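Shipment paperwork, digital attachment
Item: protein structure file
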Amino acid sequence: REWIRTSIAGAAKEGERGGEEGRPSDSDCSPSPGFASGLRIARSIEIYAMGAGLSTLLEGMPGPVWDAWGSFTSTVANGLSRLDVHLAGDLPSSVVLKTAGATVALCWSLRYLSNVVDHMSEYGCLQTTLEVLKALPIVSGLVAREKDKLSKKVQDQVVADRYKHSKHPKFAELPERQMARKEVLNAIEDLIAKDETSEDGKSKLSGARYFNSEKHANFQTEVYGKFVGANPIHGDSFPSVVRMDAELVSMTASLVRGSGPSASSVCGSVTSGGSESILCAMKASRDWWRRERGGGLLRGLLESLPWRKGTHKPEIIIADSAHAAYVKAAHYYGLRMVVVPVDERTGYRLTAAAVRRKITANTAIVVVSAPSYPHGVCDDIEGIGKLAASWGIACHVDACLGGFILPFARDAGFKRPGFTFSMPGLTSMSIDTHKYGLAHKGTSVVLYRSKEIRKHQFTSITDWSGGLYISPTMAGSRSGAVIAAAWASLLSMGREGFVGQARHLLSLSEHLARRIESDCKDLELLGWPDSTVVAWGSTDGKRVDIYKVNDAMTKRGWHLSALQRPPGLHMCLTAAHSRETVDQLVADLMDCCEEVRKGAREGDEEGMAPMYGMAASLPDRNIVGDVLVAFQEASLDC
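Attachment content:
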């Protein structure tokens, strides 16, 4: 402190002498050496004065701290003095322009580097390097030509398969004349001849068909026909559909409302399916988090820094087994994905401990599955919910598959993980009515803990020339027919019917899992099933390629779902399956494993095995994405 006082006093005296010697006259505005020296001393005084002001804060600090502070202030003062001398001959405007240019260049450079770091942290160093290489002129031209070849090949294959068995011509344009309705129906009969059909209880599809009987399907169609023209956006014209819409939400919420003060505040809306429910929940959760936790002076300062484009992105923590719709939501809403791998050590479940290690100041949402689509297991819902509550972040429960199964498990005689809004931290849920709610395709329900969260899902427009507008979901117009059919399905099933369905399907999933464990020596379970999805892989992928097994099963009429990382298959059991169907599935699995193990299918280039084999071996995941894009484009074109 004494050193600071002495330095300030000495600097002040030298500044006074320099100022007297070099003070400019009224007629001479050019700075003399003495005056410049005075400016430098004044700068020193500013630096040392700042140190004096901090001396009260550093009271009692050890001598080395004072020495370090003195060295720092001296270095800064000397640097600023040299800068003043260097710029003494420049005009003020030149100094301003140079400073502005240097600042812009620095900000641009730092933003570029920041984007590179963000991209590498999200996609990995290898993928980023491959993208840079593919952007080179020679390589990019080669890649573009190969993409064109791939697109044409896939297009030809898809179109040829689409039309080779049809008796009717391609309808690529409107027919010149009106077709008779009977003629149109004949065309439809020709088209659906290739579709999969099955008797009640004998479906060979994984998921896809959820109706428990043809009688229930016909009932759904009958209800649908009564509301073909209804649209809930015109509530004054179709009040019946508006009422059904609200009651459908309330009936679904009653399954997971729980007890306690929060039970009465649970609310939601009807969407077109699980993906839209997820997209709505992610948008509402992001905006709710921003309002509740995303403000503050420090965060505002960080977001305003011109070179930081990505660091303030809200983050969403998901397991790598979470549904693909969350990746879609991240792309739509500017979320940064933090993906947590799951494996056999945790039973392919996301744990609270794994989530805790990934939480940062930017974490906005964490997602738990009940159950996960690939492996059919539930994440640690209660533990992760408590963690989310302690951090003030949103926690979404993806119950699209389990929403109409797990809430009835206890009454059906099974001990399964539960989830209600009375659990701490759970802020939203998605439950599909068009799966195990046995409703027509096109309905799901997204639920929220309170209206404070749900309101962030809405879009309200007050200054549109078309009038005042508000929409609860992504769609504007919605089909009243599918809402009415879903409402009717829940009434016709009742709690008794859903308990019976849960008892049937949970028994089937346990039966299938035990049969695979005991009878299929070439296969192993990928997690013990909590709900209706049973997943398995090969015990030795070199001896028995699970994707070749899948191709062999496809030729026997089965349509199983292929998994990757690790390679596997799963069967999603529905009310369209029976115990006899499960036993036939196991028998065919054993036969197909035997075929593949003996090499009966070696060299077979058809089916999904080559594609999944290529996907597993390629380091560049974007090439795999190009194949998927080519297939999707071919499917949409004719």
